[in-house]
Amino acid sequence: MMAQFLEIKSEHQDALLFYRMGDFYEMFFDDAVAAAEALDISLTKRGKHLGDDIPMCGVPVHAAENYLLTLIRKGFRVAVCEQTEDPAEARKRGSKSVVRREVVRLVTPGTLTEDALLDARRHNYLSAWAQVRDTAALAWVDISTGAFHVMPCPAVRLSPELARLTPREVIVAEGAQEPLRDIAREMGAALTPLAASAFDSTAAEHRLTDLFKVGTLEAFGRFDRAELAAMGGIVEYLTLTQKGNLPLLRAPVREQARDAVQIDGATRRNLELTQALSGGRAGSLISAIDRTATAGGARLLERRLSSPSRHLETVRARHDAVEWLVENRAIAADLRDTLRKVPDLSRALSRLSLERGGPRDLAAVRNGLEQADRIADSLCRLEMPPVLAEAVQSLMGHDALLERLQSALVAEPPLLVRDGGFIAPGVDPELDEARQLRDEGRGVIARLQAHYAEETGIQSLKVKHNNVLGYFIEATATHSAKLLAEPLSQRFIHRQTTANAIRFTTVELSELETRILNAGGRAQEIEKRLFSTLCDEVLALAPQLGDAAAGLAEVDHSRALADLAVECDWSRPQMEDSRAFDIRGGRHPVVERALRQQGGAAFIANDCDLSGEDGTGADPARIWLLTGPNMAGKSTFLRQNALIALLAQAGSYIPATSGRIGLVSQIFSRVGASDDLARGRSTFMVEMVETAAILNQADENALVILDEIGRGTATYDGLSIAWATLEHMHDTNRCRALFATHYHELTGLSAKLEGVENATVAVKEWEGEVIFLHEVRRGAADRSYGVQVARLAGLPASVVERARTVLEALEQGEREGGKRKQTLIDDLPLFSATPPPPVRPAPPAADPLAERLEAVNPDQLTPMEALNLVYEMKALGRDRG
Fold first, then answer.
1. 3-state SS, residue 496
2. In what order do the strands lie in the sheet with 190-194?
């Protein structure tokens, strides 16, 4: 056995080997040591190898999924090794023969399909990047749903595209990992090198045509060599990990970078689109707006938020669908109730195609089609926007398969095929007979006994059973002559004579006995065969079922956005092919939701107009220079406008009274600061790298939000950088932007740059207190109120007072000129403001009562001693008083 383990392990050195031993997966040697530590399970030993104990650990087969999930999350790959031979066949080769075993699957982060290992509301992407001469491409697939995409992607575009997709695993040709190493680590994705031959574009084309059973890929689009290489690399990797049992993939969809709003990784993090800065989904945009009822709808919502469209007609069509459901609330409510019953059709299909499915996956297809049919019946005669009409059309035409599954399956089937009982009665007469024999063997024998008694006229005739003869017919000696005589002797075969009875059998009874003994196994085999037949029937219609799953997701997505719009009082934006950006009464969806949940104050809505000089707006400004104190809401205002633009182009209504938005090509955000120690970057360096990326990439249709550029260095350095950055955006990028700063000197640029307008977040001072109004108004702030904010944060009063003194001196010096400023700084009584050291209180006088109590050990007191102690303490208390 151990020789077999080592032989199989030699072929999978980079994975833990789950070696099947009966009801356990066992691991040995270094695999056992690593797994025991990762899974926190016992490490034991089995036998010896080269004189040393062999470390061993194991996990039960029935609970393997939970252990697999833990190992995958900790960065391991797992090779699942199953018995591929009946032990009885192995024994024929000799008593010591080892059952044949093979690795049937390599489990990696990007190739998961089990529900227990996946987040139902998120895609689990496996991506591949390939470079052929001067072209490069990125392909990605979710084998749990069959989604397959590819796009041109030079190395400089890798980071933003992978940030958009957030794949769990990235494969690349050996020797080409460098551009991806830091990106993959940053995203927490596994980086897997593959032999360069896997990315050969010519071989890749053959792999793809074989996979999709077509003579040419032209029906799917025209792909360049790099795109073919990337897709071929994915297919080759799936062939390796799934051991030739390829998943059900849909036809590849070719995308272009210009199809979606470009959002880099830093911006996605800053805007907290799908994950909060603190980690996890809570507090992100998607957690605040997700009203979907189905897993497919939730995944579609995440895709749309991650890739807002840049096509005006597409955006307007999605808004039309949402508007129709906003106006038809009764229909939307009915849809919500129906959609809640829709299972994850896409993932059920994928598991069935990989032969990892069970009866419940077939039931998921049935239940999904039932709800699809119900939705289609209720909507098909209504006049709907094209998006909904196309989705509803995909839900129709599945009547034959639905009827087949309804008649073939029980209402609540078991999880596994081997559990049996999932095929409904009446589907297969042979199965019904086997079940009857298995479950009602005694009744069948009793009916046969009655039949024989009637046929022979011997009412005392019995059908009995023992371990020697099996089933037999027994009659008393007085009736034996009748059974031994013609014509009954031809039918009843004599088997045994005893002192008081004679025993017979019949051909019919012998056959029945065999059927009864084998009924359980035969019923199971018949159900397996019927399950395989049903799977084939389902998979034969996989493309149509995939369309139905997509249609259900589209209906759910539109309905969810309509519910959101009504619930939160959002409005439909007016989308244009222009540079307009005019938001009235805009709000931050996440902050507003948090305030509502806390039962606090209402969110203060604000306007924002960056329309520019294209004749579509009265205000010529396209850059707002925003000043005001910390804690006043500048960052919230910046983020909310970026989120409004993103939501609008994702097809959603917006959290505003109204909005007129010209299509945004890119969204850039430079908000917040943190260092990147892993790359040796300080906070200021990170800030500059992100700012450089914006200035080098932003085009005139971009929307940029910048917060506190230059704050990580000396005052004049920072001011100079912020000044130059603002000028560059105005003159070169010519984009729409919100630029928040504490450098009040910049407000003078509004007089020199016609596209810059000053705005400020209003505050009010009342009896020495600062009240934040959270209102954005035209104009510039006169100061930053930093000292007041420091006091609110809880700085000691002495520090706050000293800060006020220093601030007044510095401001006076600024008013009187540079030399006077330095003189004032030199004259500041730097130590006079420091309060004298606190006087330490004198130590308290000795307390006899406390000292007496300290000396007492209650556990050693007798009752009499305790009573005396009470009197003693009472006396000491009088003396102290």
1. strand
2. 190-194, 169-173, 126-132, 135-142, 147-152, 253-254
The total number of structural domains that make up the chain: 6
Domain shared by 475 and 505, yes or no? yes
- Among 485, 501, 518, the domain-final residue is 518
For residue 232, give the nearest of 129, 381, 355, 309 by alpha carbon.
129
Q: Is 631 annotated as a binding residue?
A: yes
How crowded is residue 99: how many other Cβ atoms within 10 Å of its Cβ? 17
Q: pLDDT tens, 454-464? A: 988 889 899 99
Please tell me the number of Cα atoms within 13 Å of 254 on its side-chain side: 13
Q: Binding residue per annotation — 586?
A: no
pLDDT at 666 (0 to 100): 96
User: Is 407 within any annotated ligand binding site?
Assistant: no
| φ and ψ of 129, to 5 deg | -120, 135
Residue 628 assigned ligand-binding role: yes
Q: Is 124 annotated as a binding residue?
A: no
Q: Domain span at residue 481?
A: 429-518
Q: Is 363 within a domain?
A: no
The answer as to whether 526 is a domain residue is no
Asked if residue 858 is part of any domain, the answer here is yes
Task: Tell me, yes or no, whether 576 and 715 share the same domain.
Answer: yes
Q: Is the dihedral of CA 151, 154, 157, 163 positive or negative?
A: positive
Give the C-alpha separation, 351 to 354, whole Å. Answer: 5
pLDDT grade for 814, boundaries at 50, 70 and 90: low
pLDDT, tens only, 75-134: 899 999 999 888 878 887 877 788 899 999 999 999 999 888 899 999 999 999 999 988
User: Is residue 634 a known part of a binding site?
Assistant: yes
